[in-house]
């Protein structure tokens, strides 16, 4: 349950504000999804933002022009705590927006993703990878997901966020996802190795070990053509 100024800010706008205890972010978002009444669904974390005032208009236009499409995802930009632009987040290989690649690693930018309202909800047993699991559910159900080469979102690099902290718990959840969905032994073994390295780093309070594992992961990702990585 948020303890920041969200309630005060929400009171300035014509919206429904719900604040109560939850088991984690997935359950909190699911409550919002259940309350949603629109035809097009998304969620935006408090730290993030839409690209500009035209974002939702452009999204609606895409769904109107493409009735066969169930979901669209686009580009974003990393911003810092002060809203300054850091670096773009662009799908360099849109052809990798597929179930085959999603079982290897998450290739979808969550705040830049929108879908037609459906029955799918986030897996509340997950704390870090619930959005990744949702995209896999979409593909397994045969949803038509389209990459749109437009900027839709600003993704804030917030030191307090779960993703930014990049903990051993997060790497363990990634390992669990890969073990369930990939079934490729080299990928499973590598994710296990990265998780264990992070775990040891935190146990020994040795941040250099985590940094080394992160560097090794980038090298492995490059050498394998994105086929093996923990991300």
TrEMBL record:
Output this protein's name: Glycosyltransferase involved in cell wall biosynthesis
The species this protein was found in: Granulicella aggregans
Q: Does Signal appear among the keywords?
A: no
Entries under PANTHER family matching the protein: GLYCOSYLTRANSFERASE (PTHR43685), GLYCOSYLTRANSFERASE TAGX-RELATED (PTHR43685:SF11)
MF-aspect GO terms: transferase activity
Which SUPFAM superfamilies does the UniProt entry name for this protein?
Answer: Nucleotide-diphospho-sugar transferases (SSF53448)
Transferase as a keyword of this entry, yes or no, is yes
All residue ranges annotated as the Glycosyltransferase 2-like domain in the record: 2-114
Q: Which UniProt keywords apply?
A: Transferase
Q: Which Pfam families match?
A: Glycos_transf_2 (PF00535)
